[in-house]
Design goal:
The structure holds two protein chains of two kinds.
Chain A: E1 13-21, H1 23-33, H2 43-48, H3 58-65, H4 67-73, E2 79-86, E3 103-115, E4 120-129, E5 132-133, E6 135-143
Antiparallel strand pairs in A: 1-3, 2-6, 3-4, 4-5, 4-6
Chain B: E1 11-12, E2 18-19, H1 22-31, H2 42-47, H3 61-72, E3 84-93, E4 102-115, E5 118-130, E6 136-148
Antiparallel strand pairs in B: 1-4, 2-4, 3-6, 4-5, 5-6
The chains are: A alpha+beta, B alpha+beta.
């Protein structure tokens, strides 16, 4: 599939996604990324540094939220720029041993800008957890055909 | 403990080489719940014109955070890692990262700003590959701001 700039419009929705997160997912992300900060896997450590509990890595949220854009673009390498601010933590409950997620992150994307000269589209992501935005200015720039 | 204001403008030269392996791309892709076949299947990646498996858009964080560690672990910086909060992050890709790449990162401290009893520190990693003719090939630029919380913050 190849997206054409001329067929896109500002404000157009590219889709939505729900990301279910468990404590095990955070351990997997810690191992894959090399970020072993215990606030992401140890409850007593997290509360000792005045957090309400174990929180997801900001980079887990950023990294999983962009999958909506990779899939829409048809080629992950088309995402040439991606930025975000981390504003609120994603608190992940301990549901070990059950089939329930510890948190659900919701992602929605819209076309925020088009650049005809650079042949790019900027996708603006809205990323929420428990009804609150956890990322701000979350923008991915996609190279188009 | 206070953050050393002289950090601003400091650079840390590229240290070790990071070898991008296929299994690491697959592992990282699974960890961020990516399912695109270009991360897992070499033939799918080649069909899109890539030489090998393509890394997910935030994969470069592995290389960037290794470079950041040089600053955080520098005793001269005054940074207490247990008080660090990630404030923002950006990736600019000059070309895709693919399996087989050998990457290096040069770290620059672009900003140090006092905030309350703590500080906001902005770093930039210039990630590059070394070509056969020994010239640098820019691969990605990552920028990151961390907030080091002061006492009682």
């Amino acid at each position: 599939m190849s997206l054409k700039l001329e067929e896109l419009a500002i404000g157009q929705e590219i889709g939505t996604r729900k990301i279910e997160v468990t404590r095990q997912d955070l351990v997997k992300y810690a191992g894959a990324s090399g970020d072993f900060n215990p606030i992401h896997w140890n409850e007593s450590f997290a509360t000792s540094v005045e957090l309400p509990g174990v929180i997801a890595h900001g980079m887990f949220t950023m990294g999983s939220a962009v999958q909506l854009v990779s899939d829409w673009a048809g080629d992950p390498a088309a995402v040439v720029d991606y930025q975000t601010r981390f504003t609120k933590p994603v608190l992940v409950a301990d549901t070990t041993g059950s089939n329930e997620p510890g948190a659900v992150i919701e992602v929605a994307g819209v076309v925020g800008a088009l650049d005809a000269e650079a042949r790019t589209a900027r996708i603006d992501l809205t990323v929420t957890f428990a009804g609150q935005k956890v990322l701000m200015k979350s923008q991915a720039v996609v190279k188009l055909a | 403990m206070t953050i050393n204001p002289d950090l601003q403008g400091r650079s840390y030269p590229a240290a070790e080489v990071y070898d991008v392996g296929r299994e690491k791309i697959r592992e990282f892709a699974r960890a961020v719940k990516a399912t695109h076949p270009a991360h897992f299947d070499v033939e799918a990646a080649k069909a899109l014109g890539h030489s090998d498996l393509v890394a997910p858009p935030t994969f470069a964080i592995i290389v960037a955070q290794r470079a950041d560690a040089q600053l955080i672990e520098d005793p001269d910086s005054g940074i207490d890692f247990s008080r660090v909060v990630h404030a923002d992050q950006r990736f600019t890709h000059h070309r895709p990262i693919v399996a087989g790449d050998q990457l290096r990162a040069e770290l620059h401290v672009d900003g140090v700003r006092a905030m309350g009893g703590g500080a906001m520190i902005t770093t930039r990693s210039e990630i590059f590959a070394v070509r056969e003719d020994n010239q640098r090939e820019s691969v990605a630029t990552t920028t990151s701001s961390i907030l080091v919380r002061g006492e009682g913050q």
